[in-house]
Amino acid sequence: MTVAQCVEEFGEENVSPSIYRLWKEGAANLTRELIVAHAIEPNDDHRKFEIPEHFKYREVYWEWGGSTSPQGGAASPVGFLRKRGFYEAPHIAVRWDLVSNDAYGRSPGMDALPDIKQLQQETRRKAQAIDKHVNPPLVADIQLKNQPASLLPGGVTYIAGMTTGKVGFAPVYTVQPELQGITEDINEIRERIKETFFNNLFLTISQFEPTSHVSATEIDARRAEALVMLGPVLERIQDELLSPTIERTFAIMSRARILPPAPAEIFGANINIEYVSMLASAQAAAATSGIERLLQIAGGLAGVDPAVMDNIDIDFALDKYSSLMNNDPRLIRSPEQLVAIRQQRQQQQAQQQQAEMAEKMAAGAKTLSETDVGGGKNALQSMTGVGG
What we know:
12 helices
């Protein structure tokens, strides 16, 4: 940071005497650069740093190699430009992959760096070869020095001595680059870089040829395989990036009293965080293939024994399937709405059955009334003992 930036950021009362003197002198001293050290670490020795114990982490700034006496007050054993505490870790350090017990992680960019350098070098050499082939370096007769010359297509350069000897322009050397081989090698390097960055896992469906006939089962299998390969990375992103970010944001909002009081139903309960990012949604969607296969098997067995459907909770299966697909919760009716709809359907069916039974009884009574059993009576009168 420059001297002016240090004073502006930390205040003139907190900088060292040397920085304060440069700032007071002004002019070119204000743009003089200084090294400012910055550390975030657990607040284990809170008394030495004079940071309250309830802060789990501390953050300190100091001038690298500078004076230990602040400008604005008495000499301090540790002349920090700034020090403060945090309830949670204020930094996010997510790692793509781990090697053994290294504290620092690795990334696909580190693995692909040699291929990237090779690709850049071959691309540069390919451009140079094309340039030398199209516009090669030339040699010319001394007679052409300081004479007008044209190297444009169709241009003419007039020189003396053409009849006595070969005088004119000629290439220093002839370049015939094998562009096809260079292009193939460049494409091979590009494919290696794509594989290093897991493009084949992120773009599972787009890799199929337009004319290829791919079944939904094969697509689900490839998607599941991709998510298995990326499983550790996704879990590490959730554990080291998403969860700390959400927990710290929630804690800051809670301390600032931004959040409203929790409803009685969830007061004091643990909150389960569900992520709806593209990768998390794809990972959840891969689990739907198991539900599909189960329902397909049950549907096939139902033709042999309908009782097999008694083993499956269809309502829960649809609710779980919709949840894994990250659909709007309003797409599935609530249990209360289902109960009301089914009760209404049962009442309608009961009323329909009663109407059908009454219709059948009326038709039977009509048939009996039209059946003569002798003695001037029909069958209905004979059964009821009414009429004569």
